[in-house]
Every structure is written in structure tokens, then in C-alpha cells.
Specification:
It holds the Pfam family LRR_8. By secondary structure, this protein is mainly beta. About 5% of the residues lie in helices and about 15% in strands. The protein has a 20-stranded mixed beta sheet, with no helix packed on it.
Length: about 475
């Protein structure tokens, strides 16, 4: 059959012009358009802004390309855009016209992270809800970059070069709905004033902050999380009112600063206080009385010595769950700890002694870590662990023990004794540990003949037994491996 003559197609295929299918949508070359309002040009190594983008587009992704500029004429015609993703390009401030976004009156989400902006756009649309300008080289923002945005909720400016001079005092004026603000990894020297009172999460870590000006956080009464770690804060940079107005604060990270004492005026809502890697020499009970709701207190790598944590200093913290004291200079387990404490983490200190009553005040302990201290068997009382009926994990690795401690709780699941000086293993100290699942004995002075007969008989639940390492040749052939050895 011959093809129809030119001009006769409709006669040959009468339904061709009457199709109910819509005409194919215009879509930029190499991009995909899965919906009428979506254009995805992600990861195409584009160097030029694509043309032929439909005016109906509401979502445009141009991330992971090599764009250096945004042409105003092309962008201004996309007045229906709600989401614009320009993440990971080469866009500079010179390639971004001041009026670039003025026609995008419905824009809600803009992502310009990982580009080469040296200043923020002078104007972003009033309709904006989320703005991500992280990982640029921004040194300055302007009053209308983020100001006068009543719907704005999240602003990400981390990993830039912002100093306090580049952050105007009215930067968030008229934007009373911002709940997340990230200014971490910049060059701020003090906590910026006039932050949105609506904030719930504030990231200021990895700056040069040495001071929180008086009243700087007095309006942020909704703040729940405050991150100030890796700064240069000293005691003189804070005062008793710095945190006292934050009546919803739950998480405060002040680690990696230069504090010599626990800050005053902590709110009662605080649940997590991170003070690790400071220069704290002593903890005063008076400083913690206001923080009665504290659940996690982290004081690792400070300068707490023999008198750094006096008896009863933490007693106001009745609900404390976890206490981290790793890497200090304590010579004994602190006395009169909160009775409900569940985890005590005390490795890499100078603890030499465990008395019969040292742990009696914390019967609810489930985890006790005393690894890498200076414990010797002669100074560990045979009843030291007996009050800890809830104990599930005991870490005594890296001490100077020559024998297993007595009176171990029957509910123990994990017992770590590697890197001690154990010379014998008898069944008596392990009797009753029928729930023990993991026992670590590596790097001791045990030989096969030093392990008494029946030692493993009581350990019916044992799943992991770290092999002891012999320092001398065994006196008898090694016994065949048991099903629980690894």
C-alpha cells in the first residue's frame, strides 16, 4: 500500500487531528519534566541557564551544574515558581542581578548553597519560607534579604564568612515566624542581637564568639536548642541572665570553649547540658539548682581534680539520667550522686579505690564505665558492686586488676576486663551471672591453666567471649573452642 499523497493525511487517518491527548509539553533539552509544573535539570553540567522552561513551572531544579550566572530575562518570566534549587553551581554575586528574584512573587523555597556568592541577594521575595545560602563566601546580608518575610521559617547561612559587621541589626525585622537559624562556621565574635523572637533552634557553633551581650537572648523565649560549641566563650562572656529567660530551652551545647565554671541562671526546662572540653575545675551545687529537669550532663575533658566534684554537688539534679566525666582527674567516684542516675561514664580518670558504699547511693545504675583508671584489686571492696542490682554493663578495662571483682550483680549483660593484670579465672566470681552475654578478657596475663574447671558452666547466656592473650607459653594444649568463643 502506497503512502497517502501530501495533504491527504487527515483523510487517510481520520482520527489523527481529533486525538483527546494533550500536545506534548515543552521541556528543556536533556532535562526531565515529570509533571506539568516540574522541571528537573539536575546534574547535567549545564553552563548556561536553559531556555524553553514553561511559564507554568512551580518547581525548578538546576542543582549540580556549572552555572555562573542567572539571566534576569529568563528568570523573571517564571512568575509561578515556588521552589528554585540552584545548589552546587558556580554562581557568583556578580552573576546574580539585584532584581533577579523580584518577579518571583510566589517563591517559597530557594536553595543556593554551595555556590560562590560573596554577598547575599539584596532582595528575596516576601513569600519566602525557606532560604538556604550555606557554604558560600557571604560576608554581608541586607535588610530585605531576610527582613519583611512574614512566612519565613528556616534560614541557613552556615559555612560562610559573616562577621557581626555584615549582619545588620534589622536583618530579620518583620520576619516573626523564623524557627530555625543556622549561622555556624562563620566569623561572628559575639552573639548577634535582634534575632527573631520566634526562634526554636539556633546554630552558632564554630565561630569566634567570646561574649553573649546582656539581653541578647531575652526575647527568644521559644528557643529549644542552642548550639554554641567550638567558640571562645569565657566566664566573663556570660552572666546570670544569659540563659535565664529561655523558659523552653531543652538542649544547650557549650562544649569546646574556655569556661572555668558551670554557667549560672540555667533554666529548669534544660534536659541536655554539654560542657565537655572546657577548663572547668569545680562544680557548684548552686549553679545547678535552677536546672532541676536536667537529664544528661556532659563534663568530659575538663580539669576536675580530687575536689572538683564535691559530695552532693549534683544532688539538685534529681532526674539526672547520664553523667559523663571522661578524661578528668577524679581520684574516686563522686559521692552523693542523684539516686535515679542510670549511666555513669568515668573512664580515663585517676580512680584508685572503690569502697563498699561508694556506689550504694545509685542503685538504679544500668551502665558503669570505669575503664582506664588506676583500680587495683586490693582496693576494690568485695561488696562495691553488690548494691547495683539494675546494672547491665560494667566496663573495667585498662585498670590494674589481678582478679575478678566479687559481688557482681546477677543481671549483668556485658563485662569488660581487657587490658588488666588478671592472673587467674575462677568460677566463684562468675557464679550467678546467668544473663551475661559478653565477657572481654583480652590482653591480660591469663594462661590456659589459670582458668579453673567449671568457669564457663554458669555462663549459659554467653554469646561473645573475647579470647585472653597469653604472655607466656601455655603449660597444656589449648582446649577446643567452645560455641561461644569468637
Amino acid at each position: 500500500m502506497r503512502p497517502p499523497a501530501p495533504g491527504m493525511e487527515d483523510a487517510a487517518f481520520p482520527h489523527l487531528g481529533e486525538s483527546s491527548q494533550p500536545p506534548p509539553r515543552a521541556c528543556p533539552q536533556r532535562c526531565s519534566c515529570p509533571r506539568a509544573d516540574t522541571v528537573d535539570c539536575n546534574g547535567l553540567d549545564l553552563q548556561v541557564f536553559p531556555d524553553n522552561i514553561t511559564r507554568a513551572a512551580q518547581r525548578l531544579s538546576l542543582q549540580n551544574n556549572q552555572l555562573q550566572e542567572l539571566p534576569y530575562n529568563e528568570l523573571s518570566r517564571l512568575s509561578s515558581l515556588r521552589t528554585l534549587n540552584l545548589h552546587n553551581n558556580l554562581i557568583s554575586s556578580e552573576g546574580l542581578p539585584d532584581e533577579a528574584f523580584e518577579s518571583l512573587t510566589q517563591l517559597q523555597h530557594i536553595y543556593v548553597a554551595h555556590n560562590k556568592l560573596s554577598v547575599a541577594p539584596q532582595f528575596l521575595p516576601r513569600s519566602l519560607r525557606v532560604a538556604d545560602l550555606a557554604a558560600n563566601q557571604v560576608t554581608e546580608i541586607f535588610p530585605l534579604t531576610f527582613g519583611e518575610k512574614p512566612a519565613l521559617r528556616s534560614v541557613y547561612l552556615h559555612n560562610n564568612q559573616l562577621s557581626n559587621a555584615g549582619l545588620p541589626p534589622d536583618a530579620f525585622h518583620g520576619s516573626e515566624a523564623v524557627v530555625i537559624l543556622s549561622l555556624s562556621s562563620n566569623r561572628l565574635s559575639y552573639l548577634p542581637p535582634s534575632l527573631p523572637p520566634s526562634l526554636e533552634r539556633l546554630h552558632l557553633q564554630n565561630n569566634l564568639i567570646s561574649k553573649v551581650p546582656r539581653g541578647a537572648l531575652s526575647r527568644q523565649t521559644h528557643l529549644r536548642e542552642l548550639y554554641l560549641q567550638h567558640n571562645q566563650l569565657t566566664d566573663s562572656g556570660l552572666d546570670a541572665t544569659t540563659f535565664s529567660k529561655l523558659r523552653h530551652l531543652e538542649y544547650l551545647d557549650l562544649s569546646h570553649n574556655r569556661l572555668a565554671s558551670v554557667p549560672a541562671g540555667l533554666p529548669r526546662t534544660l534536659a541536655v547540658l554539654h560542657l565537655g572540653r572546657n577548663r572547668i575545675r569545680g562544680v557548684e551545687a548552686a549553679r545547678l539548682r535552677g536546672a532541676r529537669g536536667l537529664r544528661y550532663l556532659l563534663l568530659q575533658h575538663n580539669q576536675l581534680g580530687a575536689t572538683g566534684l564535691p559530695a552532693g554537688a549534683l544532688r539538685p539534679l534529681r532526674g539526672l539520667h547520664t553523667l559523663h566525666l571522661y578524661g578528668n582527674g577524679l581520684d574516686r567516684v563522686p559521692l552523693a550522686l542523684p539516686r535515679r542516675l542510670r549511666a555513669l561514664v568515668l573512664p580515663h580518670n585517676h580512680v584508685t579505690t572503690l569502697g563498699a558504699r561508694d556506689l550504694a547511693g545509685t542503685p538504679g545504675l544500668a551502665e558503669l564505665n570505669l575503664a582506664y583508671n588506676r583500680l587495683v584489686s586490693a582496693r576494690v571492696h568485695r561488696r562495691a558492686f553488690r548494691p547495683l542490682r539494675a546494672l547491665r554493663s560494667l566496663d573495667l578495662a585498662g585498670n590494674l586488676l589481678t582478679r575478678l571483682p566479687g559481688g557482681l550483680p546477677g543481671g549483668l549483660h556485658t563485662l569488660r576486663l581487657q587490658r588488666n593484670q588478671l592472673r587467674a579465672l575462677e568460677p566463684e566470681p562468675l557464679a550467678g551471672l546467668d544473663q551475661l552475654r559478653e565477657l572481654s578478657l583480652a590482653h591480660n596475663r591469663l594462661r590456659v591453666g589459670d582458668i579453673g574447671p567449671g568457669t564457663w558452666h554458669e555462663l549459659q547466656a554467653l554469646q561473645v567471649r573475647r579470647r585472653p592473650v597469653s604472655h607466656t607459653a601455655p603449660t597444656a594444649p589449648p582446649s577446643p573452642p567452645t560455641p561461644c568463643s569468637v
